[in-house]
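## retry 2 of 3
previous attempt timed out at serialization; input unchanged, resubmitting
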Amino acid sequence: MFRSGNLTRLLAHPQITSTKSLVRYVAVVTTVSLVIALCMDIAGQLIFFTNWHTAVRSWLLTVLTVCVIAVPVSTVFARSQRALLLAHRELELLSRTDQLTGLPNRRALMEASEQSDFDAMVLVIADVDRFKTINDTIGHRGGDTVIRAVGQIMASHLSQFGIVGRLGGDEFALISTKAPVEDIVLALIKLREVVAKTSIIAADSVAKVSISAGVAIRGPLTSFDTVYSEADEALYMAKRAGRNRIELSDRVKLAYPEMFSQSANG
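## retry succeeded, writing output
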């Protein structure tokens, strides 16, 4: 049964996302309208009662009138509400989607970083090596093609671990709370090799690119700003060490010393 507050919200602000919920809304509106109209009609007949034939005819006419009016009007309103809700959801999705790559954007990544129910969060920041040179050589449209291609390769290799998105420019990130850091590092090494071997056709040119990445790990008591700084510093360590590398933050090195030989692979 509906409470009055719930019924009011259902009628005035329905959450209609499917045909089933639309039909349910139309049925509820029609039923409520019938109850109200019949109560008024019955009250009128009791006050001005003449005979049962007249009363029954009036009630049938009331039912018919309500159905003829309530069903199409509530259907139109419900369809409008459904379209509005779906449009709002689409807008919300677009606001969290990078238009160039189709990956989650910085906003989506930052929202993912705010989750609190995890034992360990792995953050990977990666970018395209010498991307400015690529832009200067094949132009910005060619650079966009490179970013799209690298984003697609990253998504195909890392999406199983968590959310892969574009931070901006040629910089990407992975946020994972459901995979061991060892598995992620192995996947990054494979990703680095695939990117380096891939020829990207961009602006009538064939671009050969590489990526570098920094890996950091966050405990439940560590702030995201801290782990972001550690991953960013690890990325710059990879750049300083010659690029085309995967580097670990100091915290990861201390916790997983056995991964040194796997990560330093320029």
